[in-house]
Write a structure and sequence with these properties.
The complex is a heterodimer of chains A (249) and B (270). By secondary structure, chain A is α/β, with parallel strands linked by helices. Chain A is 37% helix and 24% strand. In chain A, a hairpin with a 2-residue loop joins strand 1 and strand 2. By secondary structure, chain B is mostly helical. In chain B, 82% of the residues lie in helices and 0% in strands. Chain B starts with a helix and ends with a helix. Classes of the chains: A alpha/beta (249), B mainly alpha (270).
Amino acid sequence: MKLIETRRLGYAVNGEEILTNIDFAIREGEIVTIVGPNGSGKTSLLRALIGAIEPTSGQVTREKNLRIGYVPQKLGVDQTLPLTVGRLLSLPTRKSRDHVNKALTSVGADGLQRRQVVELSGGQLQRVLLARALINRPQLLVLDEATQGLDQEGQSAFFRIIAKKREELNCGVVMVSHDLHIVMSASDRVVCLNRHICCQGTPEAVTSEQQWQDLFGVANEGMFALYRHKHQQDSPDQYQNPTAVAHNA
Amino acid sequence: MLDDFLIRAAFAGVGVAVATAPLGCFVVWHRMVYFSDATAHAAILGVALALLLEAPIFAGTLVAALAMALAVTFMGRNIYAFDTILGVMAHSALAIGLVAVSLIGGVRVDLHSLLFGDILAVSRNDLIIIWLGAAVVFGLTIWRWSPLLITTLNPDVAQAAGIDSRRESFFLTLSLAVTVAVAIKVVGILLIGALLVIPAASARCFARTPEVMAALAVLFGVVSAIAGLRVSFFYDTPSGPTIVCLLALIFTLTNIGRSLRRARAERVSH
């Protein structure tokens, strides 16, 4: 089932085209990663999907009453806003203390509920934001570079949680990432964006495309080779096999 | 009871404090302090407008404050930083308004009371308007509390949760305009910002949740309104500025209290 679909979506700011002709859809149970250089419109596309910006042309169709869990790049809480983690998870609707505790435990952030949000470390905050996004059992999880500022270990743990939640909730996941390792290991489908969709498909299929290589160059290819090698060697079962889309059907 | 001008003044002060304190929390969280000042300064243009059209002052100031808030919100991109624009707009509005008022109103208008308030001259009708306005602002803030809070945190997170963050921001702007219109009589155009910012900023010292911060801000606002009136009556000082002086005192004391508490907490933990 398609959760969100865009048709010929275009978005322009002051006459400058940020997104052109985007045909994109996300189904339940599917993990899609959007990659692209800086200024390629990745965040704009996510914001159009969640309804934070109105497309200037084309349309976005959402499943009726779609529950979206969104993890932003940054929260930007002002120091003057006193807010406990527990209260944050209770926004916009009140949750029981038990419900909040369970949500925090499921992302490995136990015991943080009485802490002030502004006092959290980067890693703690990202986990708390993930817990907040997951607390309503979303049908679609949207992550905008949610692992920025996490170390390699923290990132792996973060994506293990997401893979697990996808199994548990059968939710669709759309994420923007700069980290091409993640693209290879955690996604079913990769969308390569540079103001328009250059190419998309399974990670393996996409990386062999000429347009991908034009965008990300030889250096990153080298990184892939390195990573793939490592992946096969060290942890073959750590993540879902990126090409195995069959279970979603 | 309302025949006594001091009682009316106290009710007016309390009404305004109840409206401004929770709204002021959002002004502080949103970093809208300059925005609220610009909105307040535009109100004097509204006074000129009201004099010109022989309309009620309240209506004129409400329209002008709202127009200023909307103009600033929807202004297109330009080369200036946002606070530069606010500075230009606020001071221009104040200056143009003062000139316009003296051209139109002549000697009829008491500029001093417009700028610094004249709480002792609050009439029964003024009191009704102040309490109606305060009820609207207080009601709107409480009703939209959760959506406003999540919009404050991050508009995109709000949007993903199905909340129209632009609509919530508009509620805030509307509340601000109403507040300006009702608070002029009490503290005047130049000191409205103080009633918004200082109670909220003082309350931050002891609050661990947004709700406690808003409640404390109301308490500080009400206490300084009543105490400020008494002090100004006793020492024959201007009421609006006296109320703000007490707020400044509360801000100082709460910050000292916070520092002492932190120092003690650190001693205990060592």
